[in-house]
Amino acid sequence: MEAAALSVDRRIIVQFLADELKVSAIQDYCPNGLQVEGAAQVSSIVSGVTASQALIDMAIELKADTLLVHHGYFWRGEDAVITGLKRNRIKKLLAHDINLLAYHLPLDLHPEVGNNAQLGRVLGFTPTDRFGEHGLGWLGTLADPEVATAGQLADYVEKVLGRKPLLVGDPFLPVGMVGWCSGAAQDMIADAVNAGASIYLSGEISEQTVHEARENGIAYLACGHHATERYGIQALGNLLAEKYGVRHTFIDIDNPA
Which of the chain's termini has less CB crowding within 10 Å, N or C? Predict the structure, then answer.
């Protein structure tokens, strides 16, 4: 029989995450922490990549009091009015007294539960260094004799992540040092090259990414923004469950992008 979840003051959870993720030290494109206030006590957390309507509906179905996400709301430059889908999402959260906790760059950067730390762990990379601003990018190796070329690495990534990556570059390029950074970090190719990577792996791809990869003589794998950012938020939710005894459920809302 499953043990009953404990109940913890929301302020304790929010402060712990602020300290653990070093929120105040990182400039971001959105507010990190409590974005929508709900229940004062936290006992049941649902985590997911993005605070979409589908994820909110699942949280309501599971009677969660807190939604923990990587992509929340109130991004820099977006329209500040609360209308349309934003109104519908926030209305549901408020109506069901659900807290929305969102952590963007602080979650990408964390050395243990962060998106890049967890992506490297899932893919079996051995980290050797970090690169780019704040050390956002990671560098490492893959000790697998069956994954010797960029093409084989692409097949391996597809098997692990469940999404076929787009490979730019020579599929026969030997796998040496691999650089990776989840999400929309395709513009960090130059940083990866300067750090010594022969292959760079991220989530998205832009038109110029193709030229940069070709002209730098490296292979680039676009593995999906969502697919590369599913693991940090799970690890963060699990950390809260272990530390405070609250219930945690990760919900993967399928997204091919």
Answer: N
